[in-house]
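Postdoc handover notes: sequence design on the structure in folder B. Input tokens:
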């Protein structure tokens, strides 16, 4: 491969921000009131009023995410001051800081800057904890600097291979708080960038066996993590009919990947064993119910749920929460072939329940139902699955939020809380017996499609019927990686779910401890 993924570091430093030597210094600027904070005022003074001039001319209003560059000219340590609009000061959130930092980091890579100093937290007020700010800023550095270009051999539009970021403040107590968050932010940011790379890799590179190798590699690097892979032989022995059916048309055999995080600390008896289950269809052609050819290349992202679980498990293994966590990833490629499963087939799934196939393109639920059932056999009290499951979910919610469904109000609330913390948005969709009724077959227990209507919800109902007595929730992230026309000018996977699932597990383990 031509290029390595950019190597990012995020650190903290107690320093005089005016004097810090860096390629880019990112400073926040508000759209309301005085706009300036202590730091931007001081910089303005050193720069002979260059920043206030910009504001006077109306070139920069501080709208959230807007940017302006002022050159250092040797008057300060930084080569450039990058002003980032943070919107209204009173409305500033940790999510705003993460996004603003992503924009700064993206710009730094574009400018071919090797160093970035971030002072965006300064002047944010007391409502935002510095620990949370440090974490979000670190995550933002990873998110915005990420590029997927490992197969680009043309050197013409090259970029630097690394970005060293440092969060700066003159107050050592503040830096200490920031540093606590940065530690977690580095772990989560790295895991998310890793997930983006795996998700972005095409179907001729990532197939069920190579995805399983990635899982093994991750488990090998962390002693708290173990990895088991069921190959086709094992899946046949165990009668995992759903996974086998979907994989039957592919030259790459299906796998069930099972990661397990076992904490070193003793776990409170009240903390449930958690299963994160992620759909990894490494390419979804639709199978015999083949998809139209337009944009079919996007279906390499049909493994994004499984990859999110992989990334989250990598982060969890390093963050070491006091909870046992399974990462269960059913992996298959959905292809048309003489050996493919076909419409009309009746499949006996791992649970013993039978499913009549009405559409081979509704394959995600066929691999997930086996994986969810497997989680119940491992005595998981909480099961959260994540999948690029239905186009209907994208029709309902668009590209900005994932659908959230489940059978337990408290679990839904916990996931909504994790969504708020992580900035990865979800929206609760309804559920009810009526929807499962639509999935009943006349000649088998279930069929794999419902009517045209409420397709995200009927798919959810189908999955929920395999969760047994567990508290179960389902995240339909179909709109998140696919149709991802450029986040901050970068196309491809955004690694959705890594931050959300990690925040969820950390909160479950801490029983909602806030910081
Ligand atoms: N992977 C697709 C869902 C999807 C569609 C994700 C578009 C992202 C964008 C899934 O396997 C699928 O094909 N679902 C069908 C279900 C239908 C046949 C009941 C769909 O949504 O059309
Ligand atoms: Mn499909
Ligand atoms: Zn699919």
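Designed sequence:
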């Amino acid at each position: 491969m031509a290029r390595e993924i950019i190597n990012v570091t995020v650190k903290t430093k107690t320093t005089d921000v005016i004097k810090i030597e860096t390629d880019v210094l990112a400073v926040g600027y508000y759209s309301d009131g005085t706009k300036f904070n202590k730091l931007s005022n001081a910089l303005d003074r050193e720069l002979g009023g260059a920043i206030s001039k910009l504001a006077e001319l109306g070139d920069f209003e501080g709208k959230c995410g807007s940017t302006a560059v002022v050159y250092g000219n040797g008057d300060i340590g930084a080569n450039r001051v990058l002003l980032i609009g943070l919107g209204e000061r009173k409305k500033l959130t940790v999510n705003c800081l993460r996004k603003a930092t992503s924009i700064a980091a993206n710009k730094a890579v574009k400018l071919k800057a090797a160093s970035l100093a971030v002072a965006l937290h300064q002047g944010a007020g007391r409502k935002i904890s510095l620990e949370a700010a440090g974490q979000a800023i670190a995550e933002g550095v990873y998110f915005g600097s990420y590029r997927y270009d490992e197969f680009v051999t043309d050197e013409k539009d090259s970029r630097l291979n690394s970005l060293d970021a440092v969060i700066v403040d003159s107050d050592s107590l503040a830096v200490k708080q920031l540093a606590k968050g940065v530690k977690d932010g580095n772990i989560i940011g790295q895991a998310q960038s890793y997930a983006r790379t795996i998700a972005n890799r095409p179907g001729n590179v990532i197939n069920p066996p190579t995805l399983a190798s990635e899982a093994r590699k991750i488990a090998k690097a962390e002693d708290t993590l173990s990895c088991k892979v069921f190959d086709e032989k094992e899946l046949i022995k165990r009668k995992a009919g759903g996974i086998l059916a979907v994989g039957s048309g592919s030259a790459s055999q299906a796998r069930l990947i099972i990661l397990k995080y076992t904490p070193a600390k003793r776990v409170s008896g009240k903390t449930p064993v958690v299963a994160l289950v992620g759909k990894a269809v490494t390419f979804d052609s639709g199978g015999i119910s083949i998809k139209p050819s337009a944009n079919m290349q996007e279906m390499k992202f049909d493994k994004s749920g499984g990859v999110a679980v992989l990334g989250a498990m990598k982060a969890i293994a390093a963050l070491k929460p006091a909870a046992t966590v399974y990462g269960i990833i059913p992996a298959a490629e959905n292809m048309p072939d003489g050996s493919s499963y076909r419409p009309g087939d009746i499949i006996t799934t791992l649970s013993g329940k039978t499913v009549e196939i009405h559409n081979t393109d509704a394959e995600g639920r066929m691999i997930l139902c086996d994986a969810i059932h497997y989680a119940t056999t491992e005595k998981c009290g909480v099961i959260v699955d994540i999948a690029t499951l239905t186009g209907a979910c994208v029709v309902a919610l668009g590209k900005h939020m994932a659908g959230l469904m489940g059978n337990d109000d408290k679990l839904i609330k916990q996931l909504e809380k994790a969504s708020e913390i992580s900035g990865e948005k979800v929206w609760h969709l309804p559920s009810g017996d009526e929807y499962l009724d639509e999935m009943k077959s006349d000649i088998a227990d279930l069929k794999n499609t419902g009517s045209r209507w409420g397709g995200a919800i009927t798919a959810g109902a189908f999955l929920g019927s395999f969760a047994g007595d567990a508290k179960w929730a389902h995240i339909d992230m179909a709109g998140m990686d696919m149709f991802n026309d450029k986040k901050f000018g970068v196309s491809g996977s955004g690694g959705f779910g890594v931050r959300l699932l990690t925040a969820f597990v950390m909160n479950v383990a801490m029983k909602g401890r806030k910081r």
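Context for whoever picks this up: The mean pLDDT is 95. Don't rerun without checking with the PI first.
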